[in-house]
Amino acid sequence: MRWKGQRQSSNVEDRRGTGARLASGGGKMSVLTVVIVIVVSVVTGKNPIELFQMVGGGTQGSSTQKSAPVPQRSAAETELAEFSKTILGSTEDAWHAEFQRRGSNYKVPGMVIFEGNVQSACGVNSERTGPFYCPGDHKLYLALGFFKQLQQMGAPGDFAQAYVIAHEVGHHIQNILGTESKMRQMQQRDPSNANQYLVMLELQADCYAGVWASLSQQQKNWLDDGDVEEGLQAAASIGDDTLQRNAGQRVNVESFTHGSSEQRVHWLRQGMRTGDLTQCNTFGN
After folding, report:
1. pLDDT band per the 50, 70, 90 thresholds, residue 255
2. Residue 131 in contact with residue 140, Cβ under 8 Å?
3. Which of 65, 84, 158, 203 would be a feasible disulfide site paired with 267, CB 3.0-4.6 Å?
4. Other C-beta atoms within 10 Å of 216: how many?
């Protein structure tokens, strides 16, 4: 992919190595003091933080916020972050134009780059769970280390990485179109087939990723020979049946959550071939 020099999204929050911790200064406040400050805050409407500082003597003898030092990043990791911002920007461009063509507005998602654990509206998640989208805050969460795992699973290449991001954006589209909530209702009405409905949702996100690839190529003409094959290889590598076999397990269709390799390749290719989100009705096929 000829991605360098393309527009990057500004809707990205980098939480790697950031955060604040309390550093003790002077004496600790008693529980009674804390309760009194809270009551005064409620009664007077004053900022409780300012009251705590007053009680604790300002910056002297009170707890202060110290930012954790930001670790140095390798050139490769910095490039991955830039790449991710660029791919998110391309999804914004593609879906803005497509939604406008259909007479509606596209509400862009945010993206959080993190490492270790991350807090979202969906709870606390570990990077070991892989990239995910949270409907509660309209953000996708990405640990850059997943791209290395993707390569180890037999899916190298920048387009394979782009497909992962576009898939999560696909979940955002399902959220704003109401598909995600309808799927949850289907699961509640028919819990015995809950996994099957989840697979349908995931396959549709694959198809939407393919639609993005088609629309983005029309806008930017940035795909190289072999990029499509990288995406299809990625879809095949992370199919549930392939993952189960590689883990030395027996293939159990009932435990699928994302679909088989064949299904994922089919729907990604369907989106690429048609460039039309209306052709991604996995629930009706």
Report:
1. confident
2. yes
3. 203
4. 24
How far apart are the C-alpha atoms of 266 and 262, rounded to whole Å?
6
d(CA 51, CA 57): 10
**CA pair distance 195, 85, nearest whole angstrom:** 32
Please tell me the total number of residues recorded for the chain in this structure: 285
Distance from C-alpha of 126 to C-alpha of 172, rounded to nearest angstrom: 20
Helix runs in the chain, H state only: 31-44, 48-56, 75-101, 145-152, 158-177, 179-189, 194-220, 227-237, 240-246, 261-274
Separation of alpha carbons 235 and 159, rounded Å: 11
Cα–Cα distance measured from residue 114 to residue 150, given in angstroms and rounded to the nearest whole number = 17
Which 3 state secondary structure label does DSSP give 120? strand
Supply the DSSP symbol for 142: E
The Cα-based distances of 15 to 71, 142, 143, 163, 281 in angstroms read: 12, 10, 10, 22, 35
Q: Which residues of 66-76 are buried (b: 16+ CB within 10 A; e: fewer)?
A: eeeeeeeeeee
Give the domain ranges of the chain: 20-67, 95-284
pTM of the predicted model over 0.85: no
**What confidence score (pLDDT) does residue 285 get?**
55
